[in-house]
């Protein structure tokens, strides 16, 4: 018998690169990471390679990447503060093919406008990329802002969901803008 502390993992190929999924022994997903992800996970000694707990996740992710409007129905167990958990729960409510802003997420969790940076920090610490759709959060001005998995992945995920992209990206010229190069 394995303890609940045993971490199971598997890797799944996807159009945005390999996905590393981890789960507790009871099958609750604890993370979904991509290569190069800020704060992402990598396989650790003692983890158990086992695709079994990930069958439903693999099926739902395959449907998602095939362009189906999937609402992920999977057991998730991300560890975080009460505030982060509230923010992550608010992410779960952002529908497929839509976007929201950091300010709107702050309002949903009852945080003040001054707490938008804290909301951004909680979103950036989301350990369950794609499953908990932090890629659907954009700047108040409609620009794409940071994404732990990289802005190129964020653009690809939004495009997959039918969100009109490209949109302005902070730090990059807007599409069609004239510039050198």
UniProtKB/TrEMBL annotation:
Residues 83-163 form the Methylated-DNA-[protein]-cysteine S-methyltransferase DNA binding domain. Its main location: cytoplasm. Keywords: Cytoplasm, DNA damage, DNA repair, Methyltransferase, Transferase. It comes from the Bacteria. The active site is at 134 (nucleophile). InterPro entries: MethylDNA_cys_MeTrfase_DNA-bd (IPR014048), MethylDNA_cys_MeTrfase_DNAb (IPR036217), MethylG_MeTrfase_N (IPR008332), MGMT (IPR023546), MGMT_N_sf (IPR036631), WH-like_DNA-bd_sf (IPR036388). It holds the Pfam family DNA_binding_1. It catalyses: a 4-O-methyl-thymidine in DNA + L-cysteinyl-[protein] = a thymidine in DNA + S-methyl-L-cysteinyl-[protein]; a 6-O-methyl-2'-deoxyguanosine in DNA + L-cysteinyl-[protein] = S-methyl-L-cysteinyl-[protein] + a 2'-deoxyguanosine in DNA. SUPFAM superfamilies: Methylated DNA-protein cysteine methyltransferase domain, Methylated DNA-protein cysteine methyltransferase, C-terminal domain. It is found in: Cytoplasm. Signal peptide: none annotated. The keyword Glycosyltransferase does not apply. Its EC number is 2.1.1.63. Residues 8-77 form the Methylguanine DNA methyltransferase ribonuclease-like domain. PANTHER family: METHYLATED-DNA--PROTEIN-CYSTEINE METHYLTRANSFERASE. HAMAP family: OGT. Belongs to the MGMT family. This enzyme catalyzes only one turnover and therefore is not strictly catalytic. According to one definition, an enzyme is a biocatalyst that acts repeatedly and over many reaction cycles. Involved in the cellular defense against the biological effects of O6-methylguanine (O6-MeG) and O4-methylthymine (O4-MeT) in DNA. Repairs the methylated nucleobase in DNA by stoichiometrically transferring the methyl group to a cysteine residue in the enzyme. This is a suicide reaction: the enzyme is irreversibly inactivated. This is Methylated-DNA--protein-cysteine methyltransferase. It comes from Streptomyces ziwulingensis. The lineage of its organism: Bacteria, Bacillati, Actinomycetota, Actinomycetes, Kitasatosporales.
């Amino acid at each position: 018998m394995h303890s609940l502390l045993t971490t199971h993992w598997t890797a799944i190929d996807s159009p945005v690169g390999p996905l590393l999924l981890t789960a507790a022994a009871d099958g609750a997903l604890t993370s979904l990471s991509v290569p190069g992800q800020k704060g992402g996970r990598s396989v650790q000694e003692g983890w158990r390679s086992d695709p079994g707990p990930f069958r439903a996740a693999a099926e739902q992710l395959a449907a998602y990447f095939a362009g189906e409007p999937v609402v992920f129905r999977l057991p998730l167990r991300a560890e975080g503060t009460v505030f982060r958990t509230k923010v992550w729960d608010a992410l779960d409510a952002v529908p497929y093919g839509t976007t929201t802003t950091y300010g709107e997420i702050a309002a949903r969790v009852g945080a003040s406008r001054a707490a938008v940076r804290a909301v951004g920090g909680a979103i950036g610490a989301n350990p369950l990329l794609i499953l908990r759709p932090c890629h659907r959060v954009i700047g108040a001005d409609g620009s794409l802002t940071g994404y732990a998995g990289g802005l190129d992945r964020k653009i690809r995920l939004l495009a997959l969901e039918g969100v009109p992209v490209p949109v302005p990206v902070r730090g990059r010229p807007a599409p069609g803008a004239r510039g050198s190069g």
